[in-house]
Amino acid sequence: MGLEVPPRDAAVFGPVSIPRTRLLSVILHYAKLDGEDRAHRFNARVTLPALLRRYSSPEGRSSTFFGFMSQGAIVALAELNAMAANGETELAISVLAPWQNRGLGEAVLRTAIGRVCHDDGRDLVLHVNAQNKRMVRLVTRLGATRDGDQTDGRYIFPRT
Ligand SMILES: CC(C)(COP(=O)(O)OP(=O)(O)OC[C@H]1O[C@@H](n2cnc3c(N)ncnc32)[C@H](O)[C@@H]1OP(=O)(O)O)[C@@H](O)C(=O)NCCC(=O)NCCS
Q: What is the model's pTM?
């Protein structure tokens, strides 16, 4: 499995849980994002060695994942982190460039809202930089409320 991206007309299926045994597929997904998309995803420029360090560290090991797959590759991904202290679960999502603008981002976010806010009874929180217009549109369209300062928007879907 390399850095090739499945063609946009290939079959896609999901959402599926992505176990920690598939962590390499997660890292490859992040490596396949465009530079700007990866910077938006992590709110920072992140290199491949930094990704490898992050997901082998104790902090990286607390994440859980689900996503949409095509030809064995993750084309859309949700990374969830349940924060023990405050009953919140943090979410970050990403979709490979050729697979964007066909509803996968919205499907990932809707699935996360169902699992976290309804099934787990926890608040779902996303940190979205104001420059990330596409993601701001997506969370706003699905009804998130916003707090935080001008640049680091904190968007919340409350538990139901
Ligand atoms: C933000 C991001 C997740 C959106 O993913 P996506 O799969 O493109 O999202 P969607 O397809 O659901 O929606 C995107 C747009 O496509 C449109 N769209 C959805 N289905 C469509 C279809 N079948 N035909 C045409 N347009 C469509 C949506 O209306 C939306 O339009 P808008 O941007 O004008 O509001 C993606 O751009 C990404 O991975 N960005 C980099 C990482 C990132 O910023 N992550 C956020 C950190 S929390």
A: 0.96
